[in-house]
Specification:
Bound molecules: ligand UAG, adenosine-5'-triphosphate, 2,6-diaminopimelic acid, magnesium ion
Domain Mur ligase central: 110-305
Main location: cytoplasm
CATH topology of the largest domain: UDP-N-acetylmuramoyl-L-alanine:D-glutamate ligase
Strand order of the largest sheet: 11-10-9-12-8-13-14-15-16
CATH architecture of the largest domain: 3-Layer(aba) Sandwich
CATH class of the largest domain: Alpha Beta
Modified residues (N6-carboxylysine): 221
Cofactor: Mg(2+)
Keywords: ATP-binding, Cell cycle, Cell division, Cell shape, Cell wall biogenesis/degradation, Cytoplasm, Ligase, Magnesium, Nucleotide-binding, Peptidoglycan synthesis
Structural class: alpha/beta
CATH superfamily of the largest domain: Mur-like, catalytic domain
Largest sheet: 9 strands, mixed
Number of domains: 3
C-alpha cells in the first residue's frame, strides 16, 4: 500500500479531485488486471485508448484514476488526477510505487538491432562469475540472482520492469543488465529507470512494420541515449555507421568500441575456428569460445562496459576466455557421422549475412553450407525478400520454411521470401512449409563435414501458428534427426 501522493511525486498535475492521500493497493494500466483498492492509469496505446476502460476499472474497484482526458460523469467517490502525458509518467509512477529500485542498482541497458541478448546475457554471466548477485531482463528469460522468470517481452512494460527491479533489490542484487528494444523506448517502458550506462550495437533493417521508416527507427534508438544522465556512460559501436550518431546529444560519458578503428575498447581477430576465436586485446592474446566476427564486437562491448563499471582488467580478460555462447546464438551441434548444424537466432537480413559470413570464415575445404530459414508472420514484411536474398547469396543450398507464421498464411510468407530470389538462383532453393520436414531434408542433403544453418528461432521452444503455440525446439529436432541423445 502507498499513498497516491507519493506515487505522483515530481509529476506535474493539471487537475485533481478527491483526497490524494488515499492508499493505493497496486498500480495498473490494464483494466483487466484491476482489483479493489488499485490506481488505474489510462494510457493511449497503439491499438486502443486506455481511457475507454476507465469505467470498467472503477467497476472492478479502482480507488483512483490518472488520465489525460477526464471522462464525463466521473464518479465523485473516486480520486481523479489529470496529467499531460500518462505514457511517459506511468514508468515514473511505477518506479515510485516500488520505491525507485533502479537507484539502488547499477543498471546498464543494451540497444540495437542485433546483439542485445548476447551482450546483456554475457554481462550477467560476467558479473555472476565475479561473485555478484545480478539481475537480467532479456528476450530469453528474466533473472533475479539465480531465480528464473518467464520473459514475455524483450523489454517488458514499465510495471513489470519496476517490479522485477524491486525483486532484484530485495534479493541483494547490485547490478541489472537489460535489453532495451526500440518498441520499449518508443512506448516509454523505460521511463523511471535510473541508468548507469547504455550500449549501442548496430542498426540494420528490422521492425519497419512498427517504426515505418528507418529514420524513425533510428530516432527511437537515439532517444535512449539522449535521455541518459551525465553520471552514466554511453558506449557505442564505432564500426556501425550510426554508432556515433547515437552519441550526438547525450549528456553521458561517450565511449567507443571497435574492431576496425581506434577506440576506447579495441581488439583484433587473429584466428577463427569452429570452436572459437583468438583475439588480440591491446597486444594480449585471448582465446574465446565464440565464432563470427560479430561476436568479437559483442565481446568488446562486454569488456568495455565491465571496465567502465570498475572491474579490474586482468579479471575481465580471464572471464572473456570462460564465457560460452548464449542459448540459440551460434550454437553448434554435430551428428555421429560428422555433419554440423548451427542453430542461430538470425532473423534479420544483416544477422543472416553475419552468421553465414561467420560460417564462411571457418570453412576449411569445400564443405557445403545448407541454410534453413523462415520469417515471422505479423512482423516487418519488407525484410522477407532481403533475408532470402542473403541466405541464397551465401549458401550452397537454401530451404525456405516457416518461422512463427502467427496469424498469417505460411505459404504467403514463403512467397514473400521467394520474391527476393533471382531466376538464376532458383535451382539452389527449395520451399518446405513444415519446419521439421525442412530441417530433415537439410540433414538428408548434408554429407559429413557439411554445415547446416538453422536460422531464426534460436532459443525459442515453440512455433506460433494461428494463435496456438506448439512445442518446437530447433535443437531438439536436430538432435533427434542426428540420432544424438
Ligand atoms: C505493438 C506493441 O508493442 N504493443 C505493446 C503495447 O500495446 P498497445 O499499445 O497495443 O496496447 P493497446 O492494446 O493499444 O492498449 C492501450 C492501453 O489500453 C489498456 N487496455 C486495453 C484493453 C482493455 O481491455 N483494457 C485496458 O486497460 C492497455 O493495457 C493499454 O494500457 O503495450 C503493451 C504493454 O506494454 C505490450 O504488451 C504490447 O506488446 C505487444 C503484445 C507486442 O507484441 N509487442 C512486440 C512487438 C514488442 O514489444 N517487441 C519488442 C522486441 C522487439 C525486438 O525484437 O527488438 C519487445 O520489447 O518485446
Ligand atoms: N553484433 C552483432 N551484429 C550483427 N549480428 C549479430 C550480432 N550479435 C548477434 N548477431 C546475430 O543476431 C542474432 C540475434 O542476436 P541477439 O539475440 O543477441 O540479438 P537481439 O538484439 O537480442 O535480438 P532481438 O531484438 O530479437 O531480441 C544472433 O543469433 C546472430 O545471428
Ligand atoms: N523479437 C523479435 C523476434 C523474432 C524471432 C522470429 N523467430 C519471429 O518470430 O519472427 C520479434 O518479435 O520480431
Ligand atoms: Mg534480444
Amino acid at each position: 500500500m502507498k499513498p497516491l501522493k507519493d506515487i505522483l511525486a515530481g509529476i506535474g498535475l493539471l487537475e485533481t479531485r478527491g483526497d490524494l492521500s488515499v492508499q493505493v493497493r497496486s498500480i495498473q494500466f490494464d483494466s483487466r488486471k484491476v482489483e479493489a483498492g488499485d490506481l488505474f492509469v489510462a494510457v493511449k496505446g497503439t491499438h486502443v485508448d486506455g481511457h475507454q476502460y476507465i469505467a470498467k476499472a472503477i467497476q472492478l474497484g479502482a480507488v483512483a484514476v490518472v488520465c489525460e482526458d477526464v471522462p464525463e460523469n466521473f464518479p465523485s467517490g473516486v480520486v481523479l488526477v489529470k496529467i499531460e502525458n500518462t505514457q511517459i509518467n506511468f514508468g515514473k509512477m511505477a518506479a515510485a510505487f516500488y520505491n525507485n529500485p533502479s537507484t539502488n542498482l547499477k543498471v546498464v541497458g543494451v540497444t540495437g538491432t542485433n546483439g542485445k541478448t548476447t551482450i546483456a546475457s554475457l554481462l550477467y554471466k560476467t558479473f555472476c562469475l565475479l561473485g555478484y548477485k545480478v539481475g537480467l531482463i532479456s528476450t530469453i528469460k528474466y533473472y533475479v540472482g539465480e531465480d528464473e522468470f518467464h520473459a514475455t517481452h524483450t523489454t517488458p512494460d514499465a510495471l513489470q520492469i519496476q517490479e522485477l527491479m524491486a525483486k532484484m533489490v530485495d534479493a541483494g542484487c547490485e547490478y541489472c543488465f537489460m535489453e532495451v528494444s526500440s518498441h520499449a523506448i518508443d512506448q516509454d517502458r523505460i521511463s523511471g529507470i535510473d541508468f548507469d550506462g547504455g550500449i549501442f550495437t548496430n542498426l540494420t533493417h528490422d521492425h519497419l512494420d512498427y517504426h515505418k521508416t528507418f529514420a524513425e527507427y533510428l530516432k527511437a534508438k537515439k532517444k535512449f541515449f539522449d535521455q541518459l544522465p551525465s553520471t552514466a556512460f554511453a558506449l557505442t559501436n564505432a564500426d556501425d555507421k550510426n554508432g556515433m550518431v547515437m552519441l550526438q546529444n547525450t549528456k553521458a560519458a561517450k565511449q567507443t568500441y571497435s574492431l576496425r578503428s581506434l577506440a576506447n575498447f579495441h581488439c583484433k581477430v587473429l584466428e577463427k575456428h569452429f570452436d572459437g576465436m583468438l583475439l588480440s586485446i591491446d597486444g594480449q592474446e585471448v582465446w574465446t569460445h565464440f565464432t563470427g566476427v560479430f561476436n568479437a564486437s559483442n565481446l568488446m562491448a562486454v569488456m568495455g562496459a565491465t571496465l567502465l563499471l570498475g572491474v579490474d582488467r586482468d579479471e575481465i580478460l580471464r572471464i572473456l576466455s570462460e564465457l560460452r555462447p548464449v542459448s540459440g546464438r551460434f550454437e553448434i551441434l554435430r551428428s555421429p557421422e560428422g555433419k554440423y548444424a548451427v542453430v542461430d537466432y538470425a532473423h534479420t537480413p544483416d544477422a543472416i549475412q553475419n552468421v553465414l559470413s561467420g560460417i564462411a570464415e571457418i570453412r576449411t575445404g569445400n564443405e557445403q553450407v545448407i541454410t534453413v530459414v523462415g520469417a515471422g508472420g505479423d512482423r516487418d514484411k519488407t525484410k522477407r525478400p532481403e533475408m532470402a536474398q542473403e541466405a541464397v547469396r551465401l549458401s550452397d543450398k537454401v530451404i525456405l520454411t516457416s518461422d512463427n507464421p502467427r496469424s498469417e498464411e505460411p505459404e504467403q510468407i514463403l512467397a514473400d521470401m521467394e520474391a527476393g530470389i533471382e531466376a538464376h538462383q532458383k535451382h539452389k532453393v527449395l520451399s518446405i512449409v513444415n519446419r521439421k520436414e525442412a530441417i530433415k531434408t537439410a540433414c538428408m542433403l548434408a554429407k559429413p563435414g557439411d554445415i547446416i544453418l538453422v536460422a531464426g528461432k534460436g532459443h525459442e521452444d515453440y512455433q506460433e501458428i494461428k494463435g496456438v503455440k506448439y512445442h518446437f525446439d530447433d535443437k531438439e529436432v536436430i538432435n533427434e534427426i542426428f540420432g544424438n541423445n
